[in-house]
Design goal:
- There is one protein chain.
- By secondary structure, the protein is an alpha/beta fold.
- The protein has 10 helices and 7 strands.
- A 7-stranded parallel β-sheet has the order 3-2-1-4-5-6-7, with helices on both faces.
- Strand 5, helix 7 and strand 6 form a beta-alpha-beta unit.
- The longest helix is centred in the middle third of the chain and has 25 residues.
Length: about 270
């Protein structure tokens, strides 16, 4: 049931690859709640995904952009304001990629050029997005930026390798830029630390099924789905959360606050 939470609000959604992605489901939810937006992704990701189908379903235009390129981002924000008819109210950063993980490099044998690429794509791009928006004065007061994170920013997880550092940096950028943007323009910046989610990107991590099953056993409410996350992001873009900023918001069914559960005890009891 739609409530028109985002009626009249305009924004940009980064990272919708296919129907399994959180960004894709968020786009559908925002459309349902009355918002309008421009879709964007890197050209190579667009060739791999189905973003044209999503654009048609949401009556949205696509502006390709490499989020690591300041020139591309400047073009994206300028065109988005032209297309949507004014300043923006929300931006979703749903971007993350590790060449080391894709090529199965262990943490003790990192390719450091790839490591820097992981940081640039998965974290520094968020700073570039924020800085570009600020310089272009692209956001309305109480506009909302959300980037997607994971609890590996605080805890060690095997096979998450350099993405863990990228997520830690992403959360730090949200705090630092949130302080600046809030003071200057009353714009808010947050990250959402989502449960393991069966997206195309998540499935690329070795041992993901074990991550998922363990979190399910450890979460009193179970793992939050991509649809649940889309709902949460929509609320974070609405006026109901206009005083929330600089937070890393745990959206994980209680996983991050749980020591052990009866389900896990039962599973481990011999």
């Amino acid at each position: 049931m739609a409530h028109q939470l985002l009626k009249g609000k305009k924004g940009i959604i980064f990272g919708a690859l296919d129907e399994n992605s959180i960004a894709w489901k968020t786009a559908l939810k925002i459309k349902e709640e009355g918002g309008s937006f421009v879709l964007t992704n890197a050209p190579i990701a667009m060739r791999m995904g189905k973003i044209n189908e999503l654009a048609k379903a949401c009556d949205a235009e696509i502006v390709p952009a490499d989020a690591t390129s300041e020139q591309d981002l400047q073009n994206l924000f300028t065109k988005a304001m032209e297309i949507l008819g004014g300043k923006l109210d929300f931006v979703l950063h749903s971007i993350g990629m590790s060449p080391n993980i894709r090529k199965e490099k262990p943490y003790g044998d990192m390719n450091y050029d790839w490591y820097l690429k992981t940081i640039d794509i998965s974290a520094l791009s968020f700073h570039k997005v924020l800085q570009t928006a600020e310089k272009l004065d692209a956001m309305n007061e109480y506009g909302s930026f959300v980037a997607l994170s994971y609890i590996a920013a605080q805890r060690s997880y095997p096979d998450y390798t350099d993405m863990a550092q990228a997520k830690a940096m992403l959360e730090s950028i949200a705090r630092s830029y949130g302080a600046r943007y809030g003071r200057l323009k009353k714009v808010r910046v947050n990250t959402i630390s989502q449960s393991p989610t069966k997206t195309t990107a998540g499935a690329g991590i070795s041992g993901f099924d074990v991550f998922f099953d363990y979190a399910q056993l450890m979460s009193p409410l179970g793992n939050a789905t991509a649809e649940d996350c889309a709902n949460y992001i929509t609320v974070m873009f609405s006026d109901f959360t206009k005083m929330v900023t600089m937070q890393n918001l745990m959206h994980d069914g209680g996983f991050s606050s749980t020591g052990i559960t009866e389900d896990l005890i039962e599973r481990l009891t011999k």
